[in-house]
Amino acid sequence: MTVTPGPRNRTPLGSLSVSPLSLGGNVFGWTADEAESFAVLDAYVAGGGNFIDTADVYSAWAPGNKGGESETVIGNWLASRGNRSDVVIATKVGAHPAYKGLSAATIKAAVDESLTRLRTDYLDLYYTHYDDESVEVSEFLTALDDLVRAGKVREIAASNISAQRLEESLAFSDREGLARYVALQPHYNLVSRDTYEGELADVAARNGVAAVPYYALASGFLTGKYRPGSTVDSARTAKAATHLDTDRGLRVLTALDSVAAAHEAEIATVALAWLAAQPTVVAPIASARTVGQLPALLGLAELTLTEAELKLLDEASA
User: Fold this and answer.
1) CB proximity list for 231: less than 8 A, separation 6 or greater
2) HSE-up of 258 (CA within 13 Å, CB side)?
3) With the C-alpha atoms ordered 173, 178, 179, 182, is the resulting torsion angle positive or negative?
4) Facing residues of 12 across strands?
5) What CA–CA distance (Å, rounded) separates 187 from 250?
6) What does pLDDT average to over the chain?
7) Nearest-CA neighbor of 116 among 66, 79, 155, 63?
């Protein structure tokens, strides 16, 4: 599948306008060094992408890292390319080892650190990375609203939050006239549907909140490279390969193979296209460690599945 360069298919996200695929930045400064990361970022933008997702904690889990590595790489890329106004940068607060939780003080200190690493004076989209139920929604939403009013953040969003707390947050913002969550980043893909579908998705739909799913390819399982008896050299192999032990995982692979063959498309492209077709979903997130992995991801913009194909995948993943 050929990907035509240039911006297209932009979708509104609050006041923002985003491409069909959000590029995950968790690999930058972890499994992709700066040169590899720059090459991926360049190719993503050349392929029509504009929506880059990262977090202040990426990649504190890697030996020798302390968090902020991904933001630093992206910031260096933005500075070297001079293209800040052409891309939508999303990052997150609440999980960095030095800035855990969602107290007002933590948020206001962490945002300045993220801005410094990203070498910018504003964030397009700022997520609360994990809900912190020890903090009232009034405290963190007021702090986030302050950042919007100060021009440091354009839009706010939530990740890893319960339906109840999401609804409570939205109601508070509406009641008080404060910045309101425009997006939700749930764990959601063909082999993990109950992590979003149901009450959480209903709250999002009812309140006009866009979904930007993470683990869109189930740590690589939905690329099709993991098969019974196969060996894959990847930092994510252990997590991805668990799906081979489930009936659903094998059913999903069979269905993906069938649909991919019909379109002469990559399996990953089909998995992302299914996700993009789901209610509330605006842009699935997927990461690429190398430029060679990008075409299958960017192909999402060119692939529309039929109702019969969506049904086949729905039934296989049920």
Assistant:
1) none
2) 14
3) positive
4) 17
5) 20
6) 95
7) 79
CB of 93 within 8 A of CB of 114? Answer: yes
What residues contact 19, with CB distance under 8 A and at least 6 apart? 7, 9, 10, 11, 48, 49, 50, 51, 283, 301
Alpha-helical (H) ranges within the chain are 34-46, 69-81, 104-118, 137-149, 163-176, 199-206, 237-241, 247-263, 267-276, 294-298, 307-317
Measured CA distances, 184 to 43, 46, 289 (Å): 26, 27, 25
For residue 50, give the nearest of 97, 10, 1, 14 by alpha carbon: 10
In the prediction, which pLDDT does 178 show?
A: 98
Rounded distance, CA 179 to CA 186, Å? 20
The answer on pLDDT for 237 being more than 70 is: no
| Contact predicate 294/40, CB 8 Å | yes
Q: Rounded to 5 degrees, what are φ and ψ at 241?
A: -70, -20
Please name which of 174, 113, 116, 183 lies closest in space to residue 141, comparing C-alpha atoms: 174
Q: Which phi and psi angles does 292 have, rounded to 5°?
A: -65, -20
Higher pLDDT, 52 or 230: 52
Quick check: 222 and 292 in contact, CB under 8 A?
A: no
Contacts of 4 (CB under 8 A, 6+ apart): 48, 302
Condensed to tens digits (0 to 9), the pLDDT of residues 253-307 reads 999 999 999 999 999 999 999 999 999 999 999 999 999 999 999 999 999 999 9
Q: 80 Cβ partners below 8 Å, 6+ apart?
A: 38
Crossing angle for the helix pair 69-81 and 34-46, to the nearest 10 degrees: 60
Q: Which of 44, 58, 127, 181 is catalytic?
A: 58
Determine whether 130 is an active site residue. no
pLDDT in tens, 9-42: 899 999 999 999 999 999 999 999 999 999 999 9
Q: What is the pLDDT, as a whole number, of residue 230?
A: 73
| 216 φ, ψ (degrees, to nearest 5) | -60, -30
